[in-house]
Design goal:
Length: about 400
């Protein structure tokens, strides 16, 4: 569950490959959620509350067909994600197939299931990049958040193997009220691990994470301090570590350009093969998503399906977005957040100060963070909802 990097200069490569990309053309990068299964139990999981079960997952042959098809229509990058993608026994085979069809592959992983041999096999199969999520900079906080003993220690080990194998590494640090005090140490950890990039990823509150908002919401003072720490580190570590940071929604002035705009730059494929405009899109009830198992091609689904076209561009926007000068900059923010907070994905994202609901969510964030309720409801793939305030997993 991670933010995607902007494919950036991949456009030149795309042109040289004669891609059919144009306005709403095929995006450069696709996120493949191979499975929703996961050994971690993070309270901020952004996957839908209803998960795809193992039996409904695409088969190896189905995924290979998908990889071939997306490469043929001009996609350049494939991000293997989940859940935990290494829970799929066929991951090496899928990475090899991605290489064979010319895709740049990135593994977005919690790392806890990887062995050195398997990581080495992935590198041999052509894996191009590894992104590891961290829940803190030391085991006591990190393992409690992950809901798994020894998770942090394992992640550190895998990060070291990643660099030994000469694979580029991104550290994805998911930040919230209960670990923001470690941010400076997390930045140093990323430097020590020889990562190229650190994503300071503030928790976003849809899917399972919404259940834990009160336990995760940072205080306004924490966010001010975070911005100061990131600014100082960016200047100090220029050329050593790139840092991605966006002010969290509830405290922002304007919303993030979520997914680069709905149906503009990315799509996701769910474990069961649904083509989604973003990883949390299934949390929006009332939208129907087409599947790679349907009779339509992936290109047709991207260009023509109702779910993509419903919030594409600016024509669907209500006021205040419709007459706003920023409408082609942020595309009205995040549809999933608008749905989670207003019950209608077609509303302006309340993260925007111009939304009539903004003041309400700002106050809500202040109240929830001040109440200091630290109890987590853990995500448990088996279906349980373990609750704890204390030392779970540590
Ligand atoms: Fe963006 Fe809409 Fe807010 Fe304007 S009103 S800044 S378009 S979310
Ligand atoms: Fe779905 Fe923002 S997460 S549009």
């Amino acid at each position: 569950n991670a933010t995607l990097r902007d494919p950036g200069d991949g456009l030149a490569v795309l042109e040289s490959r004669g891609s059919i990309a144009e306005t709403y053309g095929i995006p450069l990068a696709v996120l493949a959620e191979l499975t929703h299964r996961c050994p971690l139990q993070c309270p901020y999981c952004s996957n839908p509350v209803e998960l795809d079960r193992g039996g409904s997952e695409l088969t190896t042959e189905e995924w290979k067909k998908v990889l071939t098809e997306i490469a043929e229509i001009g996609v350049l990058q494939i991000h293997f994600s989940g859940g935990e993608p290494t829970a799929r026994k066929d991951l090496v085979e899928l990475v090899q197939h991605a290489s064979d069809v010319g895709l740049y592959s990135n593994l977005i992983t919690s790392a806890v299931l990887l062995t050195k041999d398997r990581l080495s096999a992935l590198a041999d199969a052509g894996l191009c990049h590894v992104q590891i999520s961290f829940q803190g900079n030391e085991p006591i906080v990190a393992n409690r958040v992950a809901g798994l003993k020894q998770a942090h220690e394992k992640k550190i080990e895998v990060a070291k193997w990643t660099r030994e194998l000469d694979l580029p590494l991104t550290v994805n640090a998911v930040m919230h009220r209960q670990n923001l005090f470690q941010l400076s140490d997390i930045i140093q950890m990323a430097v020590d691990l020889d990562a190229d990039r650190l994503e300071v990823a503030n928790v976003q509150y849809y899917g399972w994470a919404l259940k834990n908002r009160a336990a995760l919401m940072p205080t306004f003072e924490q966010i001010e301090e975070t911005s100061r720490i990131v600014e100082e580190a960016e200047a100090r570590l220029k050329g050593i570590l790139a840092i991605d940071y966006v002010v969290p929604d509830y405290y922002a002035l304007r919303p993030k350009k979520c997914m680069g705009g709905w149906g503009r730059q990315f799509f996701n494929i769910s474990p069961a093969g649904k083509i989604l405009p973003c990883h949390a899109a299934e949390s929006i009830t009332g939208l129907e998503f087409e599947s790679v198992r349907s009779n339509h091609s992936i290109a047709w689904i991207w260009q023509n399906s109702e779910a993509f076209n419903r919030y594409r561009g600016t024509g669907w926007m209500p006021e205040p977005c419709r007459s706003c000068e920023f409408k082609e900059i942020d595309f009205g923010g995040c549809r999933c957040q608008a749905f989670a907070l207003t019950g209608d994905a077609g509303n302006t994202d309340p993260a925007c100060t111009l939304s009539p609901l903004h003041e309400k969510i700002f106050k809500l964030a202040e109240q929830e963070s001040a109440a200091d309720n630290n109890r987590f409801i853990y995500r448990n793939f088996a279906g349980g909802t373990l609750e704890t305030e204390g030392d779970h997993g540590a």
